[in-house]
Amino acid sequence: MSTKRFRIGVDIGGTFTDGTLVDTDTGDITTSKVLTTPDDPSLGFISAIRRLLSPGSSGTPPDSPDARGARPVSPELVDHVVHATTVATNAIIERKTAPTAFVTTKGFRDMLEIARQIRPSLYDLQFEKPPPLVPRRLCFEVPERLGAKGEVITALDEEATRQVARAIAATGIESVAVCLLHSYRNPAHEQAVGKILAEEIPGVSVSLSSAVVPEFREYFRASTTVINAGVRPIVGRYLTTIEKRLDADGFDCDLLVMQSNGGVYSSAAAIEKPVFMVESGPAAGSVAAAAIGTALGYPDVISFDMGGTTAKASLIRDGRPSVTKDYTVGAAAQSGAGAFGGASGYPVRTPVVDLVEVGAGGGSIGWVDSGGALRVGPHSAGASPGPACYGNGGEEPTITDANLVLGRLDPMYFAGGEIPLDRERAARAIDQHCAQKLGLSVEETAHGIIEIATTAMVNALRLVSVQRGHDPRDFMLVAFGGAGPAHAVRIAEEVGVSRALIPLEPGTASAMGLLSTDIRMESTTTVISRADSLNPGELQDAFSSMESKGAATLREAASAHTGTRFERAIEMRYYGQSFELTVDAPEGEADATWMSAILEKFHASHERAYGFRVDAEPVEVVNLRSTAVGEIRKPGLKPLANVGGDLNAALKSRRPVYFNPQTGFVETPVFDRVRLPAGAKFNGPAIVEEKDSTTVVLPGWRAQVDPYGNLLITR
Amino acid sequence: MIRSALTQATEEMAVALRRSAYSTNVKTRQDFSCAFFDRNLRAVAQAFTQPVHLGSFVRHVPYAIGEYGADKLGPGDMILSNDPYGGGVHLNDIALIGPVHYGGQVIGYTACLAHHVDVGGGAPASVGAFREVFQEGVIIPRVKLVKGGEIVRDIFNLVLAQIRSKRETAGDFRAQIAANRTGAARISEIVDRYGLDEFNRYVDELIEYTARRTAAELQKLPHGEFSAEGFVDNDGFTDDVVKLAVKVTINGSGVRFDTTGSARQRRAPVNSTFAQTYSACAYALRALIDKDLPVNDGFYRYVHVEAPEGTVTNCVHPAPVVGGWETHVRLNDLIFLALSDALPEAVCAGTKAMQCHSGFGGEVEPDPLNPVTGAPGARAEYFCFLETLAGGYGGRHASDGPDAVQTHGQNTENAPIEETESNYPVRITRYELVPDSEGAGRFRGGLGLRRDYQFPQQVTFTVLADRDRAGPHGLFGGETGCKSVYAVIDDDKETVLSSKTTIDLAPGRVISYRTSGGGGYGPPGRRDPERVANDVRDGKVSIERALNVYRVVIDPATLAVDTVKTGQLRGGDAQ
Questions:
Q1: Looking at residues B392-399, what average pLDDT do you find?
Q2: Which CATH number is associated with domain B2-211?
Q3: Is A340's CB within 8 Å of B19's CB?
Q4: What dihedral angle (degrees, nearest 10) is formed by the CA atoms of A658, A660, A663, A667?
Q5: Which of residues 135-174 of A touch B (CB under 8 A)?
Q6: Is A522-631 the same fold as A282-359+453-515?
Q7: What is the third-level CATH fold of A97-228?
Q8: Distance CA A379, CA A363 (A)
């Protein structure tokens, strides 16, 4: 037995803080759940950890197979803690970022105010542009100018810069973002400005755009840098507090933080570049789905996570979640590919797991619009008052109410029986708000609510697959979140997926993602050069230089990893286009063969994405992306102890369940998930209940319990 | 469910077009739109990036197919069209339309329209003040560009031969073809899933659904007749203002827009085609009703436009049309002015309401690092660049007009300076807000912006804009926004240009745009002094202007409101 054999993951969500403890020797997993403590999230963090370590106080149900063998664990046996947090995102959304100044090239003070000069909504005469993250009075100019090749047109006026620094010092801000034109080509002026700022404003936090995201397109780089600067003092204080709490409890381990791209980085790196963690929480779910798929031999997976207010979809290929750099933080909720929705928020050009989120969750409200059409969401009843069936004053019908009326949920076994549901209230809400207006029965209307919500979720799945040039039929659906398993099979049916997998304890599955990832340090070099005029040796040198820096960062960062590897990708486009496609580089030294392999991959992915390729057109290399990966051993899946047991022992009851208007209610067996033995097989229709979720197996589908307790549903 | 699938199909078209396009205007500035029409040429689903294409596109496509003959289009065929008087707009906006075949029959049409950076004619980027449409570029009267899935080389080459920026235009055509194919594939998938009968039934139902909701929305609008008059500042050749008139009649059967009384068409670039005028009217109605309404034929049937032939609101052959959007967008300001007494909380004060084009081009020596000119072995190559600049928005009943933003039918993005300078021989030397340019008001108009261009080499530059004589109107006591200035700067000597000019620039010269601020809403003397002080602290409004126009006294040392002096100055009006 190794000395430090335990690892901990903590995911702080809006309502709950989830903890997961894994024993890497045995594969045993313990989970805990405590209420999030918004005033000081570190309190919830540490109490989730304490519950993991001391027996009997765990949030794991006592009859869960995972709870067996839970014994007290001493803090010094913990190798590292992985943390996902929304502290950065919340600061941006709630506009509680640290007071920040912005410094740019003379003539461009209003870069953040003007932004993209567009309206976020096309037909709204009362629209507002998002307020700039830095008010105009805190935006400053320094005399200097670089050209597009990085050449100096006007040298930096250091004396004027010093005066600007003093003016900034007088404002009392905590943090400064610097973004000078064309600094992605030549960081010298930004570095000089950074040095002067540090000299004149002791203790100030300085973020240079050439260090945060050295890529062209000034507003996008500036926005990313300003967000980094604005959350840096907040994230710094927060992570320092977390580390102190761990120290006080006797931990001697690394603290790692989940990044938006699905990898983790050290808390030191997180404090330096917090903008890389704005989508920390949602990324964990995709990583969990990827880990489950990979462990079972399905590297191509669509991850589907449905909770109380939204559903999220993402695509995993070759075991890796797809990432995008086309991302906006703080934007109005979007349910489609609206071209300008993103203009209501702030662009962030860091790699983010490519998630599509739609306003369809258990609490989403069904309603009838003025044209007589049934609609669902985006309004949600939330946790309070909650769905009508909670009996807490909710009057409007929700997806949960629809599921209850159709017999898919057991009124006495929701959340393991902790929340008794009132079927009468649900039926009344559906009747009064929807069914009467539509002239349909309550059941038909409830079925309609589910179907409309299904459409929105199917669109989300199509956006991450079809629109990116992938055929969803080649993927397995991994569904989790409290509400995911009730809708997974119907969604699979609509998207054309023939295999859906529901992990054990779907409500907390996403926290497992925290323990299934590697340290990933990404860096970029902008090239902007035609492939036919590039010497592969130059690319090799550029990659090697990024890799040696990456390796050094990994060494400093954390001791948690056991191996190191490097991934290379190139962002390319046809010469003259503006949007790049990212192509993974093949293994080996960059030489002529390597180059032609890359070009072929680019043409092929262009064809997949846009339906055409033009082999005769020159191709341009825009950015080189290097990722230094510090590999962390993944916990293996633990086999279920109950093998070959009797399926009938798991049969709880039978009840009438409504699947479609043609057949109406059908007598359906209800199974208890924790009593299902490995290898059990049964046909739909069937309902499978566990404490935090209910799985609906539709007629025509077949379910099977795999050796690890996952429910595999196929057609 | 089919509705959302259809909308998504057109949005996927838009993504394919944008991301695979070559010209800055399409790929970055998003000057394009995509749509699906049913077998009867009714608009069913549209993915808009530009509201100007609302309405104009739905007239262009049915007309083009009707004229060409639906029976002459086989599977994989697509026709190209930019005929302005045949439902089209200005020549730069080229539509590509193809039938969607399923099981041997036509089940609809996918169409996309893109603003091409150059279509030939008298000046780079095909913008400028001309006398006749023939000077404006290549006229494409509905020709088959794609036959059976293959590009018709002769047509392609003939069109490209008229155009300056051949590489970009060729790339944009390919992107348009890809977009239509994407749309057709998605529509076919939908029919695969639901069956053709069901599909057609749902399309009918979707259109009726929109019609029902539009009718319900019309009941909420004030019924009656509302009029306004206004002007485009000049036509580019004479200083005579171009009069615009509009009468809006709202009742249960729809909204009628009558432009009788507008000026006769000019031998100058300010003429709007019928489709452009229709588009302005459709946009106005769209902006006054539920934002969530899916737009299709069920909406358009309630938009009625009377635009007398031969006027600047419905020009006929051979009137030039390149500046027709200037007239179109000004018409929008007038429609909202007409409705301001009846709908004071819904409308805004006068906005930038001009396209404000900046176009330039010229020959460049090949530069191996430059993606436009650097093709190996290339000789001097022609480049073209076009962008449109934002200005101030009008104040609203409870909020200021936003600063530096596109208005009404126009929502094109700015081109990033770093991208522009990497690709074209230009340096942007200033890009900033213009302080004190707002129309003062209880809720002020937005600030205009300044953008200066410097050229290291000789180029031909065109300003095609407006608002150089009068700024956007205020409402209910709000003041007029600052007018625009277009100037050429040679060292420190500044020469003001007309708003519709093409000039050759010697190396080193600077062109400077300062766009208009938005009109104010309500009297400036009623503006919350704290809001005035905030603008002063941000350097958006000067202390002098705060005092003289808003009657708010700001202490220059602390930048705080001197409430006592302000109260004395404002008398009973002080808040």
A1: 97
A2: 3.30.450
A3: no
A4: -20
A5: 135-137, 147-149, 153
A6: no
A7: Rossmann fold (3.40.50)
A8: 8
Nearest to A459 among B8, B371, B404 (CB): B8
Domain boundaries, chain A: 6-91+237-277, 97-228, 282-359+453-515, 364-450, 522-631, 647-714
Per-residue pLDDT reduced to its tens digit, B333-389: 999 999 999 999 999 999 999 999 999 999 877 655 555 555 555 566 788 899 999
| φ, ψ (nearest 5 deg) of residue B450 | -120, 135
Selection from A106, A111, A293, A313 nearest residue A189 by Cα: A106
Pick from A148, A370, A530: which is nearest to B213 by CB? A370
Q: Do A95 and A134 contact (CB within 8 A), yes or no?
A: no
CATH architecture of structural domain A522-631? 2-Layer Sandwich (3.30)
Report the pLDDT averaged over residues A612-616: 81
CB contact set of A637 (below 8 Å; sequence gap of 6+): A27, A292, A295, A296, A708
Q: Give residue-wise pLDDT tens across range B471-514.
A: 999 999 999 999 999 999 998 899 999 999 999 999 999 999 99
Q: Specify whether the CB–CB gap between A460 and A357 falls below 8 A.
A: yes
CA angle A14, A20, A26 (to 5 degrees): 165
Nearest to A183 by CA among A522, A521, A526, A523: A526
- Please give the CATH number for the structural domain made up of A282-359+453-515: 3.30.420.40
CB distance from A473 to chain B under 8 Å? no
Does the pLDDT value for residue A476 go beyond 60? Answer: yes
> If DSSP codes are grouped into helix, strand and coil, which group holds residue A603?
helix
Q: Which residues of chain B are within 8 Å of residue A533 when distances are taken between CB atoms? A: 368, 376
CA distance A468 to A314: 11
ipTM above 0.90, yes or no: yes
With an 8 Å Cβ cutoff, are B369 and A529 in contact? yes
Amino acid at A94: E
Q: Tokens for A477, please give them.
A: 């659906």
Q: pLDDT tens digit string along B25-71?
A: 666 666 788 889 999 999 888 876 677 777 778 889 999 999 999 99
Check if the beta carbon of residue B556 is closer than 8 Å to that of residue B543. yes
Rounded-to-integer distance, Cα A455 and Cα A366, Å: 13
User: In chain B, where are the structural domains located?
Assistant: 2-211, 348-522, 524-573
Query: What value does the mean pLDDT of chain B take?
Result: 91
Angle between the A41-53 and A218-248 helix axes, to the nearest 10 degrees?
Answer: 50
Residue A510: what pLDDT?
A: 78
Query: If you average pLDDT over residues A353-370, what whole number do you get?
Result: 87
Give tens-digit pLDDT for A546-599: 999 888 888 876 666 778 889 999 999 887 776 778 899 888 888 889 999 999
Closest to A377 (Cα-Cα) out of A392, A362, A389: A362
Alpha-carbon torsion (B360, B365, B369, B373), positive or negative: positive
- Give the largest Cα separation in chain A, rounded: 83
Q: Smallest CA–CA separation between B148 and chain A, in Å?
A: 16
Residues of A in contact with B174 (CB under 8 A): 612, 614
List CB contacts of B7: < 8 A, sequence separation 6 or more: A336, B45, B47, B294
Tell which CATH classification among 3.20.20.70, 3.30.420.40, 3.50.30.50, 3.50.30.30 matches the domain A6-91+237-277.
3.30.420.40
Interatomic CA distance for residues B306 and B315, integer angstroms: 13
Q: Distance between CA atoms of B246 and B233, rounded to whole angstroms?
A: 17
Across the interface, of A217, A371, A459, the residue whose CB is closest to B213 is A371
Q: What is the CA radius of gyration of chain A?
A: 26
Residue that is written with structure tokens 């399923």 in the block: B102
* DSSP letter assigned to residue B425: S
